[in-house]
Amino acid sequence: MKTGNSVKSFSKSYNEATYLYIAYSPRSHLFKLGITKELSQRLNNLNIHKPDGSSDWRYVGYVYLGKKITGVVETQLGTSLKKYNVHRCFHAKRGYCRELYSCELSIIIEYLNYRLLPEEKKILQKKIDKVTLDRRWSVWFSREFYNPIEEDNWNIKKGKYNPNNQTAELLPPKRNDLTPFAEMLQEKYGVRIP
């Protein structure tokens, strides 16, 4: 569960982010979509936190969209790509990464292009073309992508576990001796009362 401070922090970064990025890990063979206001710092943090145990994340492309709209575009894109979505543990911090996708880059670009202005599409495509011309990237991208299944999208609040068989129990067990209001918080919002 997010505490008051982490919700404020998330809301602030969501509204202040100016770049939408697409990153790729050859080791995991997954794409990561995200938003940030500091591109170099974000890539560094991504490699430090190691989603799916990978520290080889590289930008495939990124585009400046501006404050407030960037978060909205990321959310809409995530909804459109839901069937390709996989969740993986961070290996250097608690929690899991939910913005990972197992699909062709062309699928991500197709859904993203519906949400970009013509000049933003050109800028993004130019960056992607520069990266994908590298022979190593074309070899990595040519590998077949894994088709996500339900177990790939686990949720700690619902008691599911991650595909690496690591327990993700960050919340105390549910209680049965609570007031109706506390039960509602527990059921609807995943709040656990110790």
Describe this structure in words.
With 194 residues, the protein is of the alpha+beta class. Helix content is 40%, strand content 16%. The protein contains seven helices and five strands, in the order H-E-E-H-E-H-E-E-H-H-H-H. The chain has a five-stranded antiparallel sheet with strand order 3-1-2-5-4. The protein is globular and about 60 Å long. The two termini are 13 Å apart.
What brief labels describe this structure?
7 helices, globular, 5 strands, five-stranded antiparallel β-sheet, alpha+beta, 194 residues
Number of strands: 5
SSE arrangement, N to C: HEEHEHEEHHHH
Structural class: alpha+beta
Give the low-pLDDT segments: 159-171
Task: Estimate percent helicity.
Answer: 40-55%
List the helices and strands and how they pair.
Layout: H1 4-16, E1 19-25, E2 30-36, H2 39-49, E3 58-64, H3 69-80, E4 85-89, E5 96-101, H4 105-113, H5 118-132, H6 135-142, H7 180-189
Antiparallel strand pairs: 1-2, 1-3, 2-5, 4-5
Short summary:
The chain contains 7 helices and 5 strands. The protein has helices at residues 4-16, 39-49, 69-80, 105-113, 118-132, 135-142, 180-189; strands spanning 19-25, 30-36, 58-64, 85-89, 96-101.
